[in-house]
Each structure stands twice: as C-alpha cells, then as structure tokens.
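re: that chain from earlier
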Amino acid sequence: MKRRIYLRKTALFVLVFGLLISFISGCGGSGAAPSGGAAASQNAAEVPSLRIAVQPYLLAVPTYYIMEEGLDVKNGFKLERSVYVNGTLINEALGASLWDVATGGTSAVYGIANFGAQVVANIDLCSGGTGAYVRPGSRIANIKDGLGTGLYGNAAVLKGAKCLLPVGTLNQLNVLKWLEKAGLQPDDVEFVHMDNASAFQAFKAGEGDITAFSPPLTFNAEEEGWINGAGGELLGMNIWDPLLANPRTIDEKYDQIVAYVKLMYEVFDMFAANQELLAEWSIKWQAANGAQLTIENARREVASRPFMTSGQARQAPVGDTIYEMAVFFNQTGSLEKDELAKVQPNLRKDVIQKVFGL
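^ sequence. v structure.
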C-alpha cells in the first residue's frame, strides 16, 4: 500500500531553532520524595550525565519533579533536559544523536522504525482524554451518534474532511480510528501537518473541518464550544507512552538509564498515591513552559492520564501497545511493511528486568 501521508523533512537548523531547551536545577518543592541512593552526598559535577528529551506536556512532569528536587544527582546521575514541541522533532533529534533517553508519544513509532529508538519502559496512558473536534453546526456535528453513542458523523460527511493535526501522533491515530469506524481509509480525508498549538489557532480562525487534541488542549477546545466528535475511549484506544533510548548510547549510558527508570517508577508511585500533588506539579511544569493550567483542568488531566505504577510495570509487556499502534498505522497506509518489521525487535525488557530484579 502506497503511503499517502507525508511528513516534511526538517533541516537540522530548523530543528534546533524549533526546540525549546532548558537545563533546570532544583529549587525545592512539596510532598514526600523518593529517597536518594548511595550517591546522595555527591554533587552534579561528580556524577555522569544523562540527556533526556521531553515535550511540554504531562508525561514530562515526573522528570521535571526529579530535576527540581535534585533526585537525579542524589541517585547517581545528572539529567540534562531538552524540551521539544512535538514528537516528530524528538525523532529528528535522535537522527542527530542529541539525546540518550526520551519520553516519547505515539510518533515514537517512526523514531523506532526509522532511527532505531529502543523502547525500555512504559510511562503514562497517553490515550486518556483524547478527542477529535468539529465546529458546532458543521455537517459532521449535525449527525450526532451517527456511528454509535457519542460518535458523530458518518462516511458521507467525514469523506473529504480537512484535518489539522500533527501527523504521526496519537491525535492522528484518533482520527484514523474514527475513519475506520465509518468504513473510510486515510486517503478519504486530507491531513494537514501542523503542531497542536498551530492547529488550534488555525481551526479557531475557521480553517479545516477536524482537529484533534490530548489534554490539556482538549479543555481549551471545550471552552471554545467545539464538539468532541470522537473521543479516544469511545474508539477503544488504550495506548501507553514509551520511554525511548538512543541505540547509539544505550550501552554507554546503561547504568544511568536503569537508575533513571527505577527512580521514575518511584515517582510514579508517589504521584499515584497523591493526585493533588501531581496536579500541582503539572501546573508548575506548564508555567515553566510559558503556559497556564488551572487546578481544575490539571486535576481532570491527571485523572484521565495515569502514570504506570511499579506494580503494573512488573506485569505489563514493554511497548506492546506501541507495537499495536504501529500495526494499525501499517494497516491504514501510514507505516510501510518494512518499517513495521523494525518495531518489535526494538522493544526491550532487559531494563525493566534489571530495575525490578525479574
């Protein structure tokens, strides 16, 4: 099947210009933190570094917490964080070997297939709270429950729709699942690739017929009065974000990666036991990236997108839902067969086994 969805290649200088980079060291915080390891008395200059790429969204909040509280250094490594506006840029950065580990979204499928990214752990339920939005009064919005309870439209009104969203991400998967429900193919609509913030503004200005978001932008979409035509849960989406490792540096940084994953799950467990604390840190993380998030919306987001606990991580296969998503992308023509074949071999369980002594 010939791929009909295209990603523009990003020149390195555009990539570097487009990303936001911040290296932040601790300034204290609230709540009980995981304890430091044997390196608790060391300072940042005495421990090895670990370059981590994140996005300005919820899945990076534990990393932000770890760095602000100085838990990385206390546990024998120093995180160097770079913040990218989307997963496509993180994939491109891997091509230039600009990070050692990354908190990836669904676009990680392409990083795994094209750049050999290694999946070493599961992070959060990224499909929680997602939605594909249409304007009230539109042809699609006027057919309520056309594809089942809570699902708007039908094949006739969805066909030919112009979709504004970041291609190769969970948001596109949301729309692809909607099209599948209607018996349509990816070629039956037009995908216009743009980041979420740009898509939001363009849709607000009257462009396009469909756009798609994850929390917290879903809350902004609701405030605009837009209608969620196809929520991820109603479409059966259950996708966990992966933690990725650079295949060129994983051997050199293996001990630091294991230490980070162990600490990461300790923080996940802490936040699972204190959702209010997680909401507060989510607000802080958004503020650090120049965005505002109300406590009400922060609570809604953390409730809809839980982090995987250490108990779950002991049982869950690493990257299994990412592979399922890769299969779906292949079936819908956005991932070639030879690319799909490269995904499963890059799902690694050895880091989790090392962390939990399995």
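The first strand starts at residue 20 and ends at 21.
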